[in-house]
Amino acid sequence: MGSDSVVESSSELSFRILGSLEVQHGAAERTPTPPKQRVLLALLLYHANQVVSPLEITEALWDGRPPSSATAALHGYVTALRRTLIPSPPRLCRNARRHPILQTHPGGYVLRLAPHQLDLGRVRAFAGRARSRLGDGHCQAAADLFHQALSCWSGPAFSDVRASGVLAHYAARLDEDRLGLVEERIGTELCLGRAPSLVGELKELCAFNPLHEGLHQSLMRVLHLTDRSAEALQVYTHLRRRLVTEIGIEPGPALRAVQHAILDGGSLPAGPHATCRGHRAGRTSQAQRRW
Description:
By secondary structure, the protein is mainly alpha-helical. The chain has two domains: 3-116, Orthogonal Bundle (Arc Repressor Mutant, subunit A); 118-290, Serine Threonine Protein Phosphatase 5, Tetratricopeptide repeat, CATH 1.25.40. 59% of the residues lie in helices and 6% in strands. The chain contains 14 helices and five strands. The strands form two sheets. The protein has a three-stranded antiparallel beta sheet with strand order 1-2-3, with no helix packed on it. Strands 4-5 form a two-stranded antiparallel sheet. Helix 10 (213-225) runs antiparallel to helix 11. Mean pLDDT is 88; it is low at 1-6 and 277-284.
């Protein structure tokens, strides 16, 4: 296999981290099975196209307690992972700096991927296009794109990787980002006048995320918009009780503003994802700032 063929073959690899860890080359499965290689690959995929330092990698591989042989072991895991991704590589692939996928740099290691090769890259592309369409007032197109972004998830991030320490933090962050996308999609659906169809979904989301103020705010909105204001106020009361009892804090100002509007019988305040106008006004979620 020549150099051009290797590069072309590497571009046909696809990776998944939003659920179980998977590597595919056409119909061929190339997901590593050794636990340390899986953690290494998951970390590099999360930081795709960014150099990851040996310190961060060893922290993830040994949960902050690396052995004295960690440096040599890491080199071995990287070599083994290269062979898994591109079996029987020619001389080009044995050159650590010129390997078409997993390269060595002075500051560490980097996994070179095109956005379409990684499910997270596809999510970011869909989400960016959705926000652009929403900003232009095209709510239906935005809703469709948010649905496409969310369809890239098949379960919790890194669900079958022994994640702890920094990798567990990244997994939790990705799952938080998914909830942020769900909120954006729901806001877009509200913009399209679909409040009745959202009640059941939001009740389930709130049940699984009992302290998430954004989801509870969305549930209060759809209940109020479907003439169930009393139930919306019960949602607020229940959430406030849990926040005060379990964390010792009061609900945030956005949630309180929705409660006051319902009590006063006035118009609901604009939410962060409630209307295309809200997006044009520059309201952004944490996920938007990251993506």
